[in-house]
Protein: TetR family transcriptional regulator
Amino acid sequence: MENIQQIGNRRGQRSRQEILEAASRVMSSYGYAGTSMSALVEATGIPKSAIYHHFGSKAGLLAEVMAEGAHGFFLAMRDAHRDPPQSASPRERLGWYLGRTGEVFVHREEFLRLLLMIVMGDQAVEAPEAMQTVIKVRDEGRDYMRVMIKSAFATEGDAVATAVADELAHFGMVGFDGAFISLQSGDGKPMAEYMAQLTDAMVALGEASAARHRATQG
Structure:
């Protein structure tokens, strides 16, 4: 039979996960500043004392919510990008990558909405650990974008493909940011349509960039 300590540990772990899931839902709807401890207690049914026991403070809770969200987001990204097409045009390869990434964005809506709220809010002072996670996510996201672009233009050779990826990585992030905000605003267009248009724009820019770099090398 399980002893009392084992049962208590399992209950504690379950309570911690329940708090994280509820906090993610509430904070992604109302923001960090707009989420009171009372609202979290109401959403979880778990006493305020238990929340403080697990996370120490509301800032500590936000830091854990963002850390767990980032972990899940990048696991989903790695899974979505398995087995990319090898023999395809730059448009087909980049379209595949951006389409798969758009699907991840749709299914990780709570995490990304909260991330953007933190970026546009004042949580850098109130919750510095959470802000560090946001910075890490943005940096890793740009790295992912570089990989996608470089893969799409691989036939141009490593040097040109790398240069194109470095040149367009930030633009690609801007495209995703805008598409996600539009999706949240209920503008009426699906993510897949935005990704198809972003693919067209990035391939046109990438081809022009590749031509410039080829000329420089020549």
Q: What stands out?
A: The chain has ten helices and no strands. The radius of gyration is 21 Å. Residues 1-12 have pLDDT under 50 and may be disordered. Residues 16 and 61 are 10 Å apart (CA to CA).
